[in-house]
Amino acid sequence: MPSLTIENYVKAIFQLCQSSGESSAATGQIAAALGVSPGTVTSMLKTLADSELASYTPYEGVMLTPAGRGLALRVLRRHRLIEQLLSTTLDMPWDEVHEEAEHMEHAVSDRLVDRIDKFLNYPTSDPHGDPIPKADGTFVATPDKPLASCTVGERFRVTRVRDQSPEFLRSLTDLGLEIGVRGQVVSADATGDVTVRLGKETAELARAAADQILVE
Q1: Last residue of one domain, picked from the residues 32, 64, 96
Q2: 197, 150 Cβ separation under 8 angstroms
Q3: DSSP states of 78-146
Q4: Does residue 79 contact residue 117 with C-beta atoms inside 8 Å?
Q5: Cα dist. 184→18, 44, 160, 215 in Å?
Q6: Fewest CB atoms within 10 A around its CB: which of 70, 168, 169, 191?
Q7: pLDDT tens by residue, 38-65
Q8: CA 175: distance to chain centroid?
Q9: Distances in whole angstroms, Cα of residue 32 to Cα of each of 37, 144, 178
C-alpha cells in the first residue's frame, strides 16, 4: 500500500500538470507545492521512479506513469468526496474542509469512499468546484475561464476557485463570490483589476484575485 508521502507527491504532481497544461512538473514546482526542499523532492522522485509511479529525468522534470496517474486520481477522489461530505452533512464552511480532508484522505479505504459517493448521490464537484473523479478515474472537466479574462458587460457564474487557502476563501465569502453565484463585469481598468455586480451589490477585485476565480 502506498505511503502517505507517496500519495501526497503523486497528487501534487498531477495537480501541477493539470493547472499548467503540461505533461510534466519541475522539481522546484513540487517543492513549493509541498513545502519541502528541492533535495528532498529529488530523493522522493527517485523512489517514485523505482516504484514505477513516475518517470523522472534530472533537470527535465517528472511525469506520472499510468499507475501514478491512477493513484493520484484515487487520492483526489477521496479528498474531494470527504470535502463534500463535511460540507453537506456537517455544514462545514468551504474554507475549513480542505485541511480536514488532508488528514482524512489517507485513512479511508476506497470501499468507504464508494459508500460516501453513493450516500452523497454521486456529486460531480467538491465545495470549491473541483471535479470529483469517478471510481474508474474519469471526471468531467468544466468549461471555465478566469474571471480576469471576462470583458465589461459579460455575465458569469462562479464554477471553481483555484486558490483554496482559508484566507482567500473567507475573502470571497465576505464579497459574496461563492460557487454558483451569478454576476456581471461592470468595469475593468488598465491594471486588470475588475469590478463585478452581484445582485444589488458590487465587489472590486485585484487582477491576481480575479485570476483565481473560474467562471462560465
Answers
A1: 64
A2: no
A3: HHHHHHHHHHHHH---TTTHHHHHHHHTTTS-HHHHHHHHHHTT--SB-TTSPBPP-TTS--PPP--EE
A4: no
A5: 28, 46, 16, 11
A6: 191
A7: 899 999 999 999 999 999 888 888 999 9
A8: 21
A9: 8, 26, 27
